[in-house]
Each structure stands twice: as C-alpha cells, then as structure tokens.
Amino acid sequence: MQARKIGAAAAAAVAVIAARDLVQKKHALLRNFPVLGHARYLLETIGPELRQYIVTSNEEERPFSRDQRSWIYASAKEENNYFGFGTEVDVAQAQGRAYLKQRTFAGPLPDGHDPQAALPSAKVLGGPRARAKAFRPGSVVNISAMSFGSLSGAAITALNQGAAQAGAMHNTGEGGLSPYHRKGADLVLQLGTSYFGCRNEDGSFSLDKLKDVVAGAPVRAIEIKLSQGAKPGLGGMLPGAKVTPEIAGIRGIPVGKDCASPSRHSAFGDVDSMLDFVELLAAETGLPVGIKSAVGELDFWQELAALMARGDRGVDFVTVDGGEGGTGAAPRIFADSVSLPFRMGFSRVYGTFAELGLTDELTFIGSGKLGLPENAAVAFALGADMINVAREAMLSIGCIQAQKCHTDKCPTGIATQNPWLARGVDPASKSTRAAVYLRTLRRELTKVSSALGVAHPSLITAADIEVLNGDYEARTLAGVYGYKEGWGELGPDLAAGITALMTGRPAV
User: Fold this and answer.
1) pLDDT tens, position by position, 214-257
2) Which spans in 131-290 are helix H?
3) What is the largest CA-CA distance in the chain?
4) What whole-number distance in Å separates Cα of residue 7 and Cα of residue 159?
C-alpha cells in the first residue's frame, strides 16, 4: 500500500512537470520533449564535473591539469608528491614545452635540507632608489593579490597565516586592507582604481588615509594596479547586495549600493604624472612603490623606461601579470583574448628595460600560473626576481577548480561571501597547508636550480632552457623571445651576492 502511494505521488509529480513543460514557451526542447528534456540540462550543469573526474586525461584539463592539481594538493598536505613510471607528456609531439638542461658540474650550492626552504630575493626591494624602508624579501614566492570580497574572510585568514608561517608576503588585492589580512604576514598594499580604504567620499585618492592604513599594519610595499591578467583594461562592479557593512567599512563605500570601479586611475593620467605619484607615495611612506599590469601595447613601457633612464624618478618594482591569470571574474572576451600571455608579455617588458641597461635597477615580479616549478623556472630564466601565486595558493587550501568563483557559490567556501559555504574553510588547518605548499615550491626551485648548477633560481639563464617543437627541433628560451647576450641575467655584483647568501660563502 505504501509503495502504491509513493508511486502515485511520483507519477503525479511527473505529470505536473510534463504539463508545465508542454505549455511553457521559454524552452523549445522541453516543449517538444517534456520531462526527458530536463536530462539534457542536468548533464550540461554537471558537465565540468564529468570532464574533471571522468573524461579528460591527467594532462588535458584547463586551467590546471589533474597532474598539476595533484602535485599542489600532495605538496600542501606533505604527502608524496613524486610521480612514478615516467612522464605522461607526449614528449615526441610536445609543442612549445620548455625543458631545462642540467649541468654535470657546478659551483657552490646551498643546503637542500633547510626545513624552511629559505629562498630570499636576489635584489633589495627599493634599494636602488634608496627608499627609507627598503628591504630584501625573505621569499621569492609570495601570495598574489586577491581581495576580501572576492575571497571569503576565512580564506584570506588562511592564506595570510600560511604566508606568515612560510615567511612570505601577502598582497591585499585592491579591495582594501581587511582584518583578515592582519594575521601575521608582511603585506603588499595594492591600490586599484577605486583606492578602496584610501579614498575620499567622492572616490578620489586620499594620501592621509593611505598613511593611516600603512601606519597601522605590517605593510612593506605599495603596488599600484594598472590592470590584471583576468580582465585587463576593465573596471569592476561590486553589486550592492554584496556590499555588506563589513565590506563597506573596509573599502570606504556606502552600504548596499553598487560600487563600480573605473578602468583607469584618477590620481594620474600619463606616465609622467604616474611617476610623480609613485615618488609622492614613496616619500610620504618610505616604502618601495611599484606597479602591476598585464601587457598590451608597449608604448607605455617604452616611455616608462625612457623616463626612468634619467635617474630622478622610477618605480621600485614591476609586477607583470599574464593574460592567463584568472582569480578575477571577467567577460569571456577579456579572459581569452585581451593582453599577452605571461612569457611573451614579460619578455617584451623585460627587454624594454634591458635595452636601456636598467634591469638591475628594479625588481621584476611575475604572476600568471607560475605556482608550478616548471613555469616558475622559466619565469626566473626570463628575468623575474620573484613570483606571485594566486590560484595555486587557493588550490593549496582546498579549491577544487569548480570554476564557480563568479557565482558566489564556491563549493569549498573560498571564493564566496556565503556564510554557510565559507564555514567550510578552517583557517587553522588550511593555513598550514598554504605554508607547506609555499615552502615546497621554494624547495623544488632550489632543487632544480642546483640541477642546473646554480645556487638560486635567479641565476638560471635563458640559455639554460630549450623550447621543443616535437622531437625534431628545439630553440633556447633566449632565441624564442629574442633575448640578447646577458638578458635575463643578474649583474655580476648581484649574482655574487645571492650566491654568497645562499651558500654561506663570501662573495669573491
């Protein structure tokens, strides 16, 4: 009797759905195939999950393959991150894949068993321009810009505590310096076009508020964001529904009202005035000041290098973001087709400064899927001094690449403001995973540097890596990107200094 009632109820429900499908006019599929048509929408909805776990091979999936994610997960959990039985890469057909050339003999090398995997920058940030608070970053791997608002407070807390444990820096993102950024890590304060946390009521920049923010937190540097890889040249929109009292207080905006970020800065309008702005911030705070940008037209970079060649003004660092960057939600056209990929964009920017002999005068930071050892090694060979990691750091604290970041429905509670979902992130345990991941990546970079016969990844050169075109042709990285002799390399004094620092032996 009970089974009959359940069957009757189920049949009635199906009949109701069928009747509704037949009379509705929004979906032709359901009108023609009532009830059954819903199966198609179900499969479409769970398509990413089906491809992620069933259909694709370990090397196919994007933006991060299963092998890449597995390496990050295992590294963060201090599990075995080795792979057995050879590579899954089809090396005979590989197009554009970089291979590092190990050396048989080497000079002094560092201790590869340091539990902290210490890997400081080869350059002093702000040193060449004699900033009052210049310093040598203790880690060449740092957490990239991800704002509170795009990520949950629990996720920001986990990343900040993890960075502190690993001795790395944490970039605040353009959403302002939140309480979740104050968990122990040194900070890079990012200023976007809306100057969140450092703005007047009309949205213009406030120097006094910036100084207050810097004075009340462990800010070590200021980064002016011109654009980012996920949405270069595009402003953002924070819907009023997401502007909670907490976010409004941090960003300095009205509660419950839409907040549109302009695509360009109001505090300056060209390279010349931008450099005046940089020098103002540096003089008033004593901090190193740099810029972050994706790479489009090169006129901007050429003018910047030319003005810096005069010696009186300049940025202390340049963060080059690749077009493959992706923590910011963006229209598909911007994510896929605006700005250059990291390797091409970075090499063009570096070459612009190299032509004028300026590369030792500033720190180059790379971002855009560089949190994997092979990608990071290529970045250092091209001339990067440090790298920032974003999505890889998210993966280390539990992201599953669900690609729901733009929906506020992140199933792991990382890229959401939904309190129920965010409660899934336990900052105490996840911060440990973030720290272990950062240290593991540094250790891998030290290992591969040693394999190439150098003491630090900044000493890897563009001649140490070849890019393969199948199994019949290879060109050095220098040849692929048009590097001249010495490009991508540190000056002799910097090279000797970092070798001495890594090996404990005096510089010769």
Assistant:
1) 999 999 999 999 987 666 666 666 666 667 788 888 888 888 77
2) 153-166, 207-215, 245-251, 271-285
3) 92
4) 51
CB 390 within 8 A of CB 146: yes
- Residues 185, 210: contact at Cβ < 8 Å? no
Place of tokens 């990343």: 159
Tokens, residue 469: 């075109």
**In sequence order, which residues have a C-beta less than 8 Å from that of residue 404 and are 6 or more positions away?**
410, 411, 415
d(CA 119, CA 370): 16
Q: Which of 151, 322, 140 is nearest to 227 (CA)?
A: 322
Contacts of 70 (CB under 8 A, 6+ apart): 58
Judge contact between 455 and 449, C-beta under 8 A. yes
Other Cβ atoms less than 10 A from the Cβ of 75: the count is 24
Count CB neighbours of 34 within 10 A.
19
CB of 319 within 8 A of CB of 388?
A: yes
Cβ atoms of residues 400 and 406 within 8 Å: no
- pTM here is 0.88
Own/partner pairs, 127-134, CB within 8 angstroms, 24+ separation? 128/316, 128/360, 128/361, 128/362, 129/282, 129/288, 129/314, 129/316, 129/361, 131/282, 131/286, 131/287, 131/288, 131/289, 131/316, 132/286, 133/220, 133/285, 133/286, 133/287, 133/288, 134/288, 134/316
Token couple for 401: 């690449």
User: Alpha helix locations (H) across 167-223?
Assistant: 207-215
Please give the structure tokens belonging to residue 130: 């004699």
Q: Which amino acid is at 21?
A: D
E strands, 322-403, where?
A: 363-367, 386-389
DSSP conformation letters of 78-144: T------SS--S-TTT-EEEEEE---SS-S----TT-TT--B--SS-BTTTTT-TT-B--SBSEEE-
**Contact indicator for 65, 58 with CB cutoff of 8 Å:** yes
Q: Would you call 191 helix, strand, or coil by DSSP?
A: strand
Question: Length of the chain, please?
Answer: 508
Which three-class secondary structure state does DSSP give residue 32? Answer: helix
Which of the residues in the chain have pLDDT under 70?
1, 25-32, 40-41, 43-62, 85, 92-93, 229-242, 325-332, 335-337, 506-508
Q: What does the pLDDT look like over 51-88, one tens digit per residue? A: 655 555 555 666 777 788 888 888 898 888 887 767 77
Q: Using DSSP, state whether 226 is helix, strand or coil.
A: coil
Pull the structure tokens for residue 456: 């630090």
Please state, in angstroms and rounded to a whole number, the distance separating the CA atoms of residues 402 and 6.
Answer: 35
